Amino acid sequence: MTRKLPFLDDIPPEAFNQPEDIAERAIALATGDYGALSGCFFHVSDSLDDLLQQADRIKAGRLHSLSLHGLEGLID
Question: The pTM is what?
Answer without folding.
Answer: 0.57
